[in-house]
């Protein structure tokens, strides 16, 4: 099932760390109900309708955009990439 694809880096919705699109759909639905957020509800349907990897990439991009737009983005920081030293 495509919805089980992992999110990297994970995101946080309603204070819970979300690691897959499936978890995101559940938490978004709860958020949409609590806040009467139609955009979140549409995003839930988009995620649940994912059938291909491309659909999953689009859904993840829209999820991250929604998180930023609604100031819900509190994802754990990305691990630092090893920096190459120039000698």
Give the tags:
alpha+beta; 2 strands; 87 residues; globular; two-stranded antiparallel ribbon; 3 helices
Task: Tell me what the structure shows.
It contains three helices and two strands; from the N terminus they run E-E-H-H-H. The chain has helices at residues 21-35, 38-48, 53-69, and strands at residues 6-13, 16-20. A two-stranded antiparallel ribbon has the order 1-2. Helix 1 runs antiparallel to helix 2 (38-48). The longest helix has 17 residues, at 53-69. The chain is globular.
The SSE string, one letter per element, is EEHHH
Largest sheet: 2 strands, antiparallel
Global structural class: alpha+beta
Q: How many DSSP helices?
A: 3
> What is the typical, i.e. mean, pLDDT?
83
Cα gyration radius (Å): 14 Å
Low-confidence stretches: 74-78
Main sheet: strand order: 1-2
Tell me, briefly, the overall form: globular
Q: How many strands in all?
A: 2
Could you tell me the strand content as a percent range?
5-15%
Task: Give the CA-CA distance, first to last residue.
Answer: 48 Å
As a percent range, the share of helical residues equals 40-55%
What are the SSEs and their pairings?
Layout (H helix, E strand, L loop, with lengths): L5 E8 L2 E5 H15 L2 H11 L4 H17 L18
Antiparallel strand pairs: 1-2
Helix pairs in contact: 1-2, 2-3
